[in-house]
Amino acid sequence: MEIVAPAGYGKTTLLGAWRRELSDRGGRILPVPLDEAHRDPIRLLLDLYAGLTGDDDRVSFENRDVGLECVTAELQSGDRPLIVMFDDVHLLEDSEAEAVLAWLCRNQPDHVDLLFAGREQTRLPLRGRLLENQLRRLGVSDLALSREETAAFLNDIHGLDLDDAGIDILYQRTEGWPAALQLAALALAGARDRKAFIVGFGGSHRDVTDYLAEAILENLDREEVDFLLRISVLDRISAEVAQRLTGEEAPQLRLESLERRNLFLVPLDDYRARYRFHALFSDFLRARFKAREPREWRRCLMLAEDWSLARGDHAAAIEYALRVERHERAAEILAGYAETLVHKLGRHSLLMGWIERIPDHILARYPRIQIHLSWSYNFERRHAESDAVLRQLEAAAGGGDAAARQAMLAEIECARELNELSRAGLDDHADHGLALAQSWLERWDRAEDYQYGAAHVVLGYGLKTRNDHEGAMAAAARGKEHYARADSPYGLAWCDIVHILALMKMGRYRAARAAARDALDSCRRRLGPASHSRSMLSALLAAVAYELDDLAETRAALDHGMRFLATQTAIDPIICGYITLARLLATEGDPEAACEVLREGEACGARRDAPRLIGSLVGMRALILLRSGNPAAAESLFASDAMSLEGAPEEYRDMLRDKRGRLGARLALAQGDTQAALEAIRAPLHHARKSGQRRKHVELLILRHLARLQTGDEQGALETLESAVRIASSEGLKRVFIDEGPVLMRQLALLAESRRNSQSSPEGDVSLAWLESLLDTWNPSQAGPAADHDTGLLEPLTRRETQILRMIDSGLSNKELAATLFLTEGTVKWHLHNIYGKLAVRNRNGATSKARRLGLLA
User: Which residue intervals of 712-785 are DSSP H helices?
Assistant: First the structure.
């Protein structure tokens, strides 16, 4: 529904009445009163999310996409009818937030109704719904009072006892405008000569409201007028801030009294803890206050700014400072908050939006704001703009005190070098980033903690790439010390990522899982329910859980991990996310979907010019093709440019040699060329053993075992397999065995049997209990559902799977599902695969049919 009418036609009053009536009937209503602050899309999404969840304490969104994902998930989380009421939508015109509302209109769940009220017809995508009779629109003619309603309003409700002539004049001059009639009624109640008063007003709406509002103020005592004027500067009014601005001893009682007397004070909650003025009356009060008492108007805005700042609401403080045109003060507040905004919360876009509203000549006096801006540009991969900011700062540093100038130039140079090393790390140039980080740490001994933290993240990432695992973890630990002193949960998450990656590369998967769980718990508490940091950590947890054969945790982690990886600049979590999702799909019998997911990741790598990402995913795709019985396609990928050493950048050649060695050995085994396989394994196996990469060591031992088995060297094959199991059992690695398939698993069964029959168990022998648990995990008789029986679900559907099931019932394609749910098409296919497996069906029609029989669909 859309309600369109000028100010004062009762839009807000109507919404309030509907809300109370529907709430009394048990309906679910979410009122969203909009103001200028909601032009920031993140602020709008934060308020929407808080309203939907009731959680507004620790929520933070890094960008619009993160917020849209969270709000969309909440809107789609149930089937209980919900009405979301957006009031004063006109305030969002020509803002980024308007696009958020448009997106909600296009992706509105069936059980959610959207209601928009504003002074002008919106540009939201509603025309199609209007033509299809899916939209009801109310305008001035629907909201204006009739002659009879005007009489009832003035005489019955307000008890004015006016004659027909007086009612006719008021009705004709107001044209049934509710706000003007309300103002007239309030003014008439205190007028000495009502007839003279009625004849005395007229003209435009603005003239009428000003005339009547003045008359209302004349009927109030001086204390009440002063109270109204002073609190009118506030966007949100509470008793506490009202007392600060007015000195009122009982502000809550005063606010409730004004509300009862219909003085256009609108409660924002059922507890009367927060209010706002109707825009019509607020505009009048603010204009009158500013015109008649400019010094006091300015003082009240400054008090509101101070009050907001004292409570940590920097956004409101900056808004009040800008409203009173205290651009210098706004810049001053931002100068103290920019570090938190960027380095603690990772809110790069919000910083850039505020800076656009501050005049350049004022911003020039705050070079540190611009240094933070340069970092934000750099992190958003807007490298040219990042460099330009620092060049302008250098040019402006001339003149003045020589010592101060040198200090500023040094600070700019420090920031530039930090930008360069972080850019190298984010762009996956690990060796270059390592060298720059080492140089930066040696050179700069008086930098900020968050800068040292960032340098240690890049240092640790470079050391991890060079297989200095202990050094990488030590660098991450030092980075955490610095970020802890800076109180930066955003930075701490990056340190955790480096630490977990080092543990994974060492094959210490149990420790990696514990670290990932702890990091995710901290991330949720400090950065909110969704963030790029959580997405990256979840992708790492998914990879670890899969190797440990905890498929339930793998699925849950992927649900979060795959959300924002396509827009994330860290390469390793992207690799982990796409490869783990593909392995899971292949494990569950859908290699085609697995390969499609990997191709999607390869396209992401091409956009980012990330050879390591592309090579890793192409290698996994070749492996899945080989295991699914398509060696020719695997051979073709092996020979492709993505895996070729020729023309590859030097920094990625060792990675490619390693992947080519393992894949080449598999291809040779598939062709029966065991000698070639053993030769391909030799160098990578030596490197894995020397560098302490246990998981890779196990995989290569398995390949050697299979090669020796083919040659008939059963004793050598057994010894090799025992070595692999001994290493894997210490860390609980299972999928590296299971994914190899039945040939290897039968060899493991023979090994377990020999251990059971052994008369002795020498020290250091393979753990029989762990080996048996591995074999219990792999049960070929339970490879999948045998038939579509109506015996119920094989496993309960998750909330997301239930959402998708309902949406495919409406006929949405995979592409439409992906757009609606803010997922990739590959992730949608993964969810569909899980749904089919749990329902024991093979396609969409089977899923919806079975779901209806089970009562999952109406």
Answer: 714-731, 735-738, 742-757, 768-777
